[in-house]
Amino acid sequence: MSEEIKKELENEEKDTPPVPYEPDSDETPGEDFVPEEFSDDAEAVAAVAAPVTEEYDENQIQVLEGLDAVRKRPGMYIGTTSSRGLHHLVYEIVDNSIDEALAGFCDTIKVTINPGDSVTVEDNGRGIPTGMHPTKGIPTPEVVYMILHAGGKFGGGGYKIAGGLHGVGGSVVNALSEWMELDDTHEGIRATERFERGHVARPYQIVPAEEGRQHGVRVSFKPDPTLFEDTRFDYDVLLNRLREQAFLNAGVHIVLRDDRVNPARVTDLQFDGGIRSFVTYLNSMRHETLIHPNVIYMRGIRGTSIAEIAMQYNESYNETLLTFANNMNTVEGGTHETGFKAGITKVLNDYAKKAGILKDSDKKLSGEDVREGLVAIVSVKLEDAQFESQTKAKLGNSEIRTLVESVVTTKLSEYLEENPGEAKAILDKALAASRAREAARKARELTRRKGLLEGSSLPGKLADCQERNAELTELYLVEGDSAGGSAKSGRDSRFQAILPLRGKVLNVEKTRIDRVYSNPSLIPIMQALGCGVGEEFDAGKLRYGKIIIMSDADVDGAHIQILLLTFFFRHMRQLIDDGHIYIAMPPLYKVYKRTGKGQEYYAFSDTERDHYIEMLGGQGVEADRYKGLGEMDAEQLWETTMDPEKRTLKKVSIEDAISADETFSLLMGDKVEPRREFIEENAKFAENLDV
């Protein structure tokens, strides 16, 4: 960076009008700028890059033995040490029990959250063989829980179909736990053992069998607080996952119990209808109006592989397609998802032509057209499933695409032929979606002709930043022109851009895509982000690394937040998945003493307010509640909400996509009564605030 530009940035006043973005200009101000949390100081960079020791030879090559590698790099095995990784520990143990159910030896699984946030998982499966392992020379259960890539799912005949294929689940949980206790009964022989941080703490021993228990495994563990950000388990997060497993394994009884509360919270899960019940549940939770009354169910077998599909259409504009392989939720899809999409698109186009609804000269229905309003579950079970990673996010078996596509092509064609009334309703829905998509295309082209969605066109109210590296920039979506003005004056214009919002944002949950493209409240947001929406979304064109929603700390502000989150969730979901969306946390109160200098504090909660009042002595202390962002001047807004050194941001993430989808549909959909019931059930108490 040149000294001239450095001096210009240092001398720039915070209330300087924003520099307009001129893409054709020869000058690109600030292209080398790095925010304060980074450094371009040569000595600092050299210090970080320098080796720890001057010598680098064979003595610097380390070998991590046993489970030490897991404790050193837990993210490699469970993805993250956040709440998501914490709950993944439970899933790993439960999945072992589910594999026993798949093998036909287990019909009951009990999961208990104990006081102190340890967890116990118990099943009535076969149990782990209790004898000495023939090659390792140690007890077989010890092999399973202490050695990576050890288990009965590598072709030894113990399991034909299993979700746990890598043999690391139990041992990884052991490695990442403060302690783990194993109680294993196999063919009437019971053995116990205790581990602490992956090492044996109480040796393996045979003990008297429990009365009436001839087989099964009971595993208790407490996650290591030195490795995880938080070790408190969320009952609802576990419930959603266990409910999913109960749907995928018809007839299996799963019990979740929370002994941290009194009386204990207990949920029994058993669904004899399997994935058909799953589809019914999803539609009922969203209170959707159905296009046809029956869930369409299809099943096919080829060799040792099984494919099940259940689907039903509703009147919404959203698609819900969940795919599973050996009971693992493949959130990134894979070959089974590809096969389903290809099959359903082909079947509906062929039927429409055969029925004379589509002529040879008509444009075919697209995949998006035939899946609008669809809720579908695709579940496959197969030997030697090829997942991309331990977290099993994507299936790669090529033969499964052929199986799923064949099942859908054959079975769905038969269903439509046998149920012409339902077939017509489904096709009417797809044709309406096609017309809306065509209208959206025209609306998009119209806005382009007007220059509204071109990459070089930015909204007039946008106060852009100087930095052009998206990884270093922030866009504040600010409620109201007044707050927008303060934000523009208070920001650091080198890397912070401000876009005041125009009125109430459109509720996209009730809106077809064609209205999204022409909506005046959304066009400026799409223009500023530059990455497109829906089918044309391209994350590579995103202009800002952080998109921060900044609204008043009141009901209207919360409404604006949920409207924007609904838009991002439905049309730019990847922005949430990739961690680009944040919510700013402005203060609720300014606490100060009229006498004395510098005695003022910003409180972000009632508890914090009371603390500051007490700290300042109580007498003569004022606590003014901010009614909106517009009440703060530029300096206050910067100090409390925008300064990277002092501000608090909430990062928006989706721990459970199914639950998030249900919530958006419920809160933002057309049905009033379910929303009222939800609010009445969840609004336990409300403080009386002087607003």
Describe this structure in words.
By secondary structure, the chain is of the alpha+beta class. The protein has three domains: 1-61 and 450-586 and 626-654, Rossmann fold (3-Layer(aba) Sandwich), CATH 3.40.50; 71-269, Histidine kinase-like ATPase, C-terminal domain (Heat Shock Protein 90), CATH 3.30.565.10; 275-444, 2-Layer Sandwich (Ribosomal Protein S5, domain 2). Helix content is 36%, strand content 19%. It is built from 22 helices and 21 strands. The strands form four sheets. The chain has an eight-stranded mixed sheet with strand order 5-4-3-6-2-1-7-8. A five-stranded mixed sheet has the order 9-10-13-11-12, sandwiched between helices. A hairpin with a 3-residue loop joins strand 1 and strand 2. The protein is globular, with a radius of gyration of 29 Å. The model is unreliable at 1-42, 44-51, 152-160, 162-167 and 684-691 (pLDDT under 50).
- Tally of individual domains: 3
Share in helix = 25-40%
According to CATH, what is the class of the largest domain?
Alpha Beta
Terminal residue distance: 48 Å
Q: Tell me the number of helical segments per DSSP (H or I, 4 or more residues long).
A: 22
Percent range for β-strand residues? 15-25%
Question: Which stretches of 5+ consecutive residues score pLDDT under 50?
Answer: 1-42, 44-51, 152-160, 162-167, 684-691
The biggest sheet, with number of strands, parallel, antiparallel or mixed sense and barrel status, is: 8 strands, mixed
Instruction: Kindly name the structural category.
Output: alpha+beta
CATH architecture of the largest domain: 3-Layer(aba) Sandwich
Instruction: Tell me the strand order in the biggest sheet.
Output: 5-4-3-6-2-1-7-8
Q: Using the CA coordinates, give the radius of gyration.
A: 29 Å
Can you tell me the CATH topology of the largest domain?
Rossmann fold
Total strand segments: 21
What characteristic shape results from the CA principal axes?
globular
Mean pLDDT: 82
